[in-house]
Write a structure and sequence with these properties.
This protein is α/β, with parallel strands linked by helices. The protein has ten helices and five strands, in the order αβααβαβαααβαβαα. A five-stranded parallel beta sheet has the order 2-1-3-4-5, sandwiched between helices. Strand 4, helix 8 and strand 5 form a beta-alpha-beta unit.
Length: 259
Amino acid sequence: MRSSRFAALAMASVMPVLLAATPAQGAHYVALGDSFASGQGTARYYRDSGDCARGPLAYSALWAAANAVASYASVACSGATTKDVLNGQIKALSAKTTLVTISIGGNDIGAPAAMRECTIGSKAGCDRILANAVKTIATTLAGKLDATYAAVRKAAPSAKVVVVGYPRIFEPGRTCDVLTRSRRAEVVAITDSLAGVISARAAAAGFAFLDGRTAFAGHELCSRAPWLNEPGLPADDSYHPNRLGHAKGYLPALTALLG
């Protein structure tokens, strides 16, 4: 793939929109989404969460513990797609829900498979999966997000909704041993394109957008103090926010956004 394709997509992206959202005292808070919301990568999970890898060190749990919430529930699950939110997670919302966070879209574009193939697979396989991610972002992702956000609004009509975006996995421009420089540049470009679509659809739905790229700036892989796990064992934790990523990246950003 040529870099011009990524540049065109990035230019087509809109800048993230931050909408004011102040949770009411005693919020009824529900966290939706995928592994970046569940806490995968923090190495501490609730026993009953199974493969969903939900844990008390996820940003949502940390925010709930630090605020006077009336109730808190996380139904986020590692591997979740927009379809999983629509078919299952949405049931956790109700007219009583006053705050929702959701991180979704990465699995819809095949991000985990891409990182796995690009790390330990073949060049051809990596090329193919990244090309498919670019195509999905440009063609079908917006519609899937629109349907998901509409369902969230319908299920929780009075809730403040914060769409939580993904960080750049790699710090642009730095030299390190994780993938080649050109591969890292491709992943960064795809992340920027993904953020553009997610932020645009969040704005269209009237939801706030938390830009994970800003929250993790300077703490991506290849930086001096990364807030994401390097590739290794357990494999599912690779490239996910570590404990510092949730506590020092996502949590302060969510706290600042909610006021």
